[in-house]
Amino acid sequence: MELLLDISLLSMLVATAIGIAVSRDLLAAVMLSSIYGLLSANFFVTMDAVDVAFTEASVGAGISPLLMFATLAIVGRFERYPHQRALPALLLVVLTGAMLILATLDIPAFGDPNAPAQTHVAPRFINESGTEIGIPNMVTSVLASYRGFDTFGEVTVVFAAVVGVLALLGSSLPAAGRKLPDTLLQASNHRILRIVSKILVAPIMLFALYVQFHGDYGPGGGFQAGVIFAAAIIIYTMLFGLEAAMKVINVTVLRVLAAFGVLLYGSVGLVAMLNGKNFLDYDALAADPVHGQHYGIIVIELGVGITVAAVMMLIYFAFAGRLIDRSHKS
Asked: What is the pLDDT of residues 269-282, one digit of tens each?
């Protein structure tokens, strides 16, 4: 039964990918990409990678389509030159795909008990994380503590991404009082959606806080919580307009928060160094090393959530401001 489910999911993934590749309707491609994210999340669940599935569902099927819809509102729904340079693109995809397939030949078979991950890495985390970190969710132990440097780099990359977007579109960030035209970014005429959103936005934000602070015990953490929180604000903006959102969300504050989250994460490492430990060694945060790990993980996950939420909202508002400028010029 499990094999049949895996085959079905993989078949739907391939069919969705082909549909995205051949579609000339960009709106349809965005919708298919969202479906692809949901299918991928289901596939990760079958592989017992619930945290990865959570991330894929919130990012791949949640926030990414919203940002792509904002892009479509600027560039249009259909490709202007759909057949131009198709052969070079096809050759590039085939070459890249062949290289990836060739690389997989050196990877151990999935589930191979003799793979290095099964003989060295996994036993270390499984046998020692409960004593060293003291939290039930082993994934959080790995990402927030054992791989703290790597996660810090990921947060920095997210922050660098918004810096790049604002460098290109920053002059178009909206200000309070500037009205957004009725487009994909403001579905103000849909009363049913507005009523339903009034009911759901608050629970979505509450769920984001749950995911943020329950990541020690179940699937979740700062990345997922930040995206969920930002999605609630973006949905509110789409349905009630940018002017209403600007009364609640200040762009300048978001810029500060995007940087503050990264600084909060890094400051935990500096505190550890000031106490004579290595950078991001949470044992230095309390007399009991296990308590120190708890405190450190809570703080750095909070920093991740703040940065991710602020970055996602800033990117959306940058596209919204670009659309405003475009509508004023026309």
From this structure: 999 999 888 998 89
